[in-house]
Amino acid sequence: MFNFVIFGPPGSGKGTQSKNIIAKYNLVHLSTGDLLRTEQNTGSELGKQISALIDDGNFVPDEMIQKIFKAFLFENKNSDGFILDGFPRNTKQAAWLDNLLEEMNSEVKFMLALEVDDDELKRRILDRGKISGRPDDQNESIVETRITVYNKQTIPVKEYYENQNKFHSVKGVGKPDEVFANICGIIDKLK
Ligand code: ADP
Predict the structure, then answer these.
(1) In ligand 1, which atom is closest to the CA atom of 137?
(2) CATH number for the 3-190 domain, one of 3.30.750.80, 3.30.70.100, 3.40.50.300, 3.40.50.1100?
(3) Which ligand 1 atom sits closest to the C-alpha of 32?
């Protein structure tokens, strides 16, 4: 199994680039944001609990996301590998993931970060909100909360992979095709 983490703040283009990557490298896209929104849309009790947290820009508890993550991973365990998008989002999740993959005789091969500055992120997310209908994309203060939570809780995950010599980054601004070409350059080198 070939797994890597795509990393970057909300609005950095992880979802867009992941779609290109899975097509080219035959990987499964494991997006925790997508999994949570799927559960929300079922209208289940769990879905309602999720909405109460993520619509305001907050994380869901680790145990909750880990359970959902693991179920999806196991359902697709015969695939060639995963692109992990939105997970791990804090260092506890990163350590949990290392253990889980080790039990499966696998690992995170590397982390690939998309670098985009905060002003550009805010612009992109609010633009996306006009089309996507995501409540967390439509309100400036919720977007700011997400960027703040990212800077506080998620940035340390970068250091976690730096310490394992697994951290790589590309510029996330410019034409999406150019960003994709730079991403492929890194994947081809490390795969
Ligand atoms: P974005 O990258 O645009 O912030 P995502 O689609 O990845 O959005 O995630 C949407 C929301 O789902 C997050 O703001 C967060 O509330 C929740 N979420 C996603 N992944 C995780 C995770 N690993 N741990 C906790 N909460 C998560």
Answers:
(1) 3
(2) 3.40.50.300
(3) 20
